[in-house]
Structure formats: structure tokens, C-alpha cells
Amino acid sequence: FAVSEGVLRVVTEDVVQASLVSDKGAEATLVSWTTETFTAAYDGATSEIANVRIQYTLAGTAEEVSYVVKVTPSRAQEKEFYSIIFAKECNFYAEIIPALNAVLKGIGEKPLRFPKCVYSSLEPGKEMIMLENLQEQGYSMQDRTVGIDAAHSLLVLQELARLHAASLLLQAITPHQPLVHRFQALQKEWTKEFNIGGDFETFISNHLDDVVEMFEKMGGCEEVVAWVRKIKPEAWTLYKQQLVATPPFAVINHGDCWINNLLFKYDKDKRPVEVKMLDLQCCRVASVATDLLLFLNLNLTGPVRRPNLNTFLASYHATLTSVMQKGSSIVPFTLEQLQQEYVDRGYYGILECLMWLPNTVRQPEDMMDILDRTEDARNAERDDVLVMVDRNPLLKPRIISVVEEWMERGVIS
């Protein structure tokens, strides 16, 4: 497929020149540049994404570099929502990451593992962000349909712990100024600004209708169907309650820690050794558990998550403790309290999975625009999920493993 018209319209020579100078310095001289496709169709639900390949000279030597550009999608009627989430990501890179990294540098910790941002713009209709191309540095994405194994999961959980710990340390520096007041990126909750074919309450309600049909077709899921029907009238209220940030668990969250927003680097034996986290359009201040619940329930199969859950939470807590101790601060909660918080916020993890897991295991050739909320698009998505019950062997075991786990904990009852 071709580079989108939106990318071609906003990525101008001035933008490319500014990105190059930001990254390589004023002595870098632009020679030529091209835009290339970078992701498969529908990989970026809220962005149009491309690769910008640049030829330049520096100190008389010919060089080449490439950047990944994200721009607002070509949707005319919902520009305000996309502008809001683009502003969140741009401000996260411009303000929050430098502040968090300054704290980590002060205690001898490495910077947080996000790609370098070389250019951003919030000009209405031309919102964009330009990032270093991590694939050129040897990072790659895992197959989202298969899920993440334990080795990859530990890397992600340890990096989430570093993000959360840096947030706690930063808050401790200015205890009377909440981080949500300090940083613009954290002041709007994206689900409350959602307006694509209706508000987020409608979005959840529509998905739960589809979920009921999916479980009925699977058969043997009467208790889950009854629970979904019971909670549907208050689903949005319950969801918002899960996002209320209360000490001691309140931290800056990534907000969308799923497999397509994670890139891994490997050693010579093909073992994962490092992770980079992408896409900060859903960032918020919330409980540490919301990041953990989304990641562990949406991205891991039951045989990976269930026997290793205590190990995963212990590894997260150990990393958090290590960073906090380097910062001469006490960890505000024990491992046991973290485990209980994980259960107490379980509704959030369940609902995220019910809405997004079918698309996570959908085969590449069957991908669709899940944010197209026209009646025809909604019907097509529902029908496809029902077909997947019979034809996609990944769907049923993945989603059943989640609901069975939360039934055992009493959250689904």
C-alpha cells in the first residue's frame, strides 16, 4: 500500500531539515529524502505512519538516516480527539521524559527506554511527531497473535517499574504539586475526550454487545454472559472508577502497553535483552496496576501468565524497589499490597481484554479499522469476531484463560 496522502502533505522539506538538524546538528546538510511505507494497514489505529529516509552530508562524509513519522489520520470529523491525543504524546516527549530522565540520571540509572524524538508539531491539521527508527538499530516487534513469552515479559515489567519509580521519585521532589497539574500531557483523559461515532461509554457498550454474542457462540460460557449483561449498564462508570489515581499506587502510566507498542533487541543467541516502549497517546496518572493489568492480560497466553504471575509481580516490585532505594526513597507499597491492588483493579484488565483481544489475535490479512464506528463497519467487525470463533484457533483459549482467571478471583461472578 502507498504512503498516505496525510503523510505526503505534512512531511515537507522544512520538516525534514529541522528533524535532521535536531538529531545530527547544524553542520548536517540535507541532500535528498524519500518517504516509504513502514507499517501494515490498520497497524496504527490513531495515526498514519511512514518512514522518512534521508541522505545528508556531515563533515564532508555522505551519511544516511531514517526516522519514523506519525501524523494525524485523514478523518475529517474527529480532528479534535486526534489533536488531543497527539498533544499528549508530543508533550510527553518534550516535558515528561526529560524530567523523569533527569531524576534517573541523578541516581545513576540509565534513561527510560523510549525512542528519541527529533521533531514534533501541534499545528492544527498538521500534527506530527518524528522519532528515531529503532528497527534500523536492530529492534523488532513480536508477533502479536502469538503473544509474549516470559523472557520478553520480564523485560517489559522491569521497564514499567523504572517508569513508575521515576514518577514516584519525581513526585517526591515537589510533593505539593501533583504531576497531573505539572504536565499538560496528563491533564486530559483520552477516554473522556473520545468522540468517534459516539463517546467512550457507547464504544464500551457496543463492544459488550458483541462480546455476549461471541461467548454465546463459543458455548459453555453462561456465567460470563450473565456477568457481562449485568455490568453493561454501569460499565463506563466502573471503568472510570478504575482510573481514579489514589496513593500510594498513583504514578505516570504508559497507558497502552500492548505488543504493538513494544520493540525488542536480541543477543547473538536470539534472547531478548532490551525493550523500547512506543506510543504515549494514552498516557495518564493512574494506579501502577492498570499498566500491569493491560500488559499481562492482553499480551500473554494463559500458560505463560498464570503460572508466572507471582514471579512477574515480584520482578516488577524488585526493580521498583531498586530504583527507589537508589533515590533514597522508601517503596510506598509492599509486594503483598501490589498483589492486592492488581486484583482490586481487575475489572479494568478484564474490560480491556474483552474489547481488544479479538483484534490482537486477528490475522494480518483480516485486519480492519477498529475505530471506524459507522454501522456497516461495526457490523463487519462483529461478524468477523463470530467467524473467528470457528476459524481462529487463538481466540477462544486466549480469552477464556482471562475470564477463568478472574472468575477464580471472584471479580467475574
From TrEMBL:
InterPro entries in the record: CHK_kinase-like (IPR015897), EcKL (IPR004119), Kinase-like_dom_sf (IPR011009)
Q: Which SUPFAM superfamilies match?
A: Protein kinase-like (PK-like) (SSF56112)
Top-rank taxon, per record: Eukaryota
A Pfam family: EcKL
SMART domains in UniProt? CHK
Where is the CHK kinase-like domain positioned along the sequence? 129-326
- Output this protein's name: CHK kinase-like domain-containing protein
User: Species name for this entry?
Assistant: Cherax quadricarinatus (Australian red claw crayfish)
